[in-house]
Amino acid sequence: MSVTYDRVVRAKPPVTVGSGSVQAVRRRRRPNYRLRRYGMEALAVVIGVLIAVWSLLPIYNMIIISLDSHDDIFSGAVWPANPSLESYRVVVTEDFWYLARFWHQFGNSFYVGLSVMFLTLAIGSLASFTIGRMRIRNGWMLSNAALMTYVIPASFLAIPMYRIMQIYGLSNSLWSVILALTTFATPYAIFIFSQYGKSIPMELDESARIDGANPWQIYFRIYLPLMAPALVAVGTYALLLAWNEYLYNFLLLSTPDSMTVAVALAQFLNSDESPWNFMMATAIIYALPPIILYYGFRRYMAAGLTMGGVKG
Question: Do 44 and 127 belong to one domain?
């Protein structure tokens, strides 16, 4: 009698771990894992606190100096013995000879910042619309070439820019600063708008053309409304760039009537005995508009910059 043997799958014997089981091993490992996790969380909290203290300490020093009197500025106290808002009163009422044109210079800062913002938005949005929506051949080269301008640091271009403004008769004019800062902000705006514009379906433009819309109508009624988050993000960036700029303001503006507050603040250091409390109060008041602007539009800024950064 012939016997045929089928293939037999032999089961492996159960594995035992000495006197314990796998659950016992896991129980022994769990406390170590929790200990490491709690240790990493504690380390992250300590690092976060140190970074927060390092970042807020200069601002805290500005506040206590602005609340202190001139004679007690360098007393080394953690908090002024007799805090007062006298420095802010002096700044607001221009009751000091360095602050005689404070509100005029504050207006210059607003004029420069808003002009740079609107010019950057107009040039950047028109360029991105032309490149992305009108399908110009090799249009991508324009946005990439614009970004190449950032290879050269802005400080290296200060003297050539000063020479150009002299040639065109714009020396000691706010428009010299406006044009210079718009030149530096526009390439970034074109890049962000071009990337963000790719998220807008082209079918909307095609439908509008079928209905008889011309390119200007598509730009104003379709493109700009859908680009609102990116417009807010780039506009805020351009405004803050102009608001905090010092080098080109100092180089291109020479008279007190044409100066911005950023340059006027440096005039405090020309005195033999600098009024640091007035200077810090001026700096805090000057910093309020950007802070309000940032916290008022940060939701739109995050949406615009994130979308512009991930769309390719």
Answer: no
